From TrEMBL:
Nucleotide-binding as UniProt keyword: yes
Annotated protein name in UniProt: Universal stress protein
Pfam families noted in UniProt: Usp (PF00582)
Natural source organism: Rhodococcus artemisiae
UspA domain location: 8-131, 145-282
Length: 283
């Protein structure tokens, strides 16, 4: 019987952009909190016949390492230049990484349907959590600001819950668990919904939400947890929360890029529009 791979390191994808530098600095604070090395990774699409691409990659890594060491001088830094398609290479690295942190996507949702976004593809297929570093300005490190967790009752939501509690505990940050609902998702929509006591329903779902997280509260007793059961679409409500959070954590069903764009999945919308970093969990 095989054994699960040992997960080690916070991987930061480095492509020479300012967004990647910000993501690397933020990833360094995660690495320190978790006692993990930070693996700065640059991917070239093919093995160069000359050393030009390698030199460019080295310069990008030099800049990222300098930015990281200025912000978090105690972090252990590892560097690597990989050969392959960026998204595919990062997905392969996710087999053994603890987390992958990337800059924000530069494609729109419509463009992602036709020209694959490396950030979206990696988040949808990775075997470890993936962070898309976002925000204006993007945060430089983990701090005591609130973390927001989207909960929908699915198995992938359960994985997101575990990661959110762990990060909140390491960061000393409060955690808000958000569950959303609409009339269509709870009852057959029609005349009868006009007479439903939605306040009582909200109280009932809040109690269920608190009960479902009881085991995680016991495992992380220092985490200050609050609950928000809200009437509305999950992507809309979580985007509103992202304006006042340092991180939003959600699960992803890993749909194809086209299906995700067409269906407007919550994780896809957050990757493109969140006002703070987003952590996507598939494992």
């Amino acid at each position: 019987m095989g054994t699960a791979p040992t997960r080690r390191g916070i991987v930061a994808g480095i492509d020479g952009s300012e967004s990647a530098l910000g993501a690397a600095r933020w990833a360094a604070s995660i690495a320190l909190r978790f006692g993990e090395p930070l693996r700065l990774t640059h991917v070239v699409t093919e093995r160069p016949s000359s050393n030009g691409a390698t030199a460019d990659g080295g310069k990008a890594l030099d800049a990222a390492e300098a930015a990281v060491r200025a912000a978090q001088p105690e972090v252990v830094v590892e560097r690597t230049i990989e050969v392959g398609k960026p998204a595919q290479t990062l997905v392969e690295m996710s087999d053994t990484a603890r987390m992958i942190v990337l800059g924000h996507t530069t494609t729109s949702e419509l463009q992602s349907m036709f020209a694959r976004s490396d950030v979206v593809h990696t988040a949808n297929h990775a075997h470890c959590p993936v962070v898309s570093w976002r925000g204006e300005p993007g945060p430089a490190e983990l701090d005591g600001k609130r973390i927001v967790l989207g909960v929908d009752g699915s198995a992938l939501s359960a994985k997101a819950i575990a990661h959110a509690f762990e990060i909140a505990d390491k960061a000393g940050a409060p955690l808000t668990a958000v569950h959303t609902w609409t009339e269509q998702s709870t009852l057959t929509y029609g005349e009868g919904s006009r007479f439903t006591d939605w306040e009582a329903y909200q109280e009932h779902r809040t109690a269920e939400l608190a009960e479902s997280l009881a085991g995680h509260r016991e495992k992380h007793p220092d985490v200050d947890i609050s609950y928000s059961v809200e009437r509305g679409k999950p992507d809309v409500m979580l985007l509103e929360h992202s304006a006042h959070a340092q991180l939003v954590v959600v699960g992803s069903h890993g749909r194809s890029t086209i299906a995700s764009a067409l269906l407007g999945s919550t994780s896809q919308n957050l990757i493109h529009h969140s006002m703070c970093p987003v952590l996507i969990c598939r494992s």
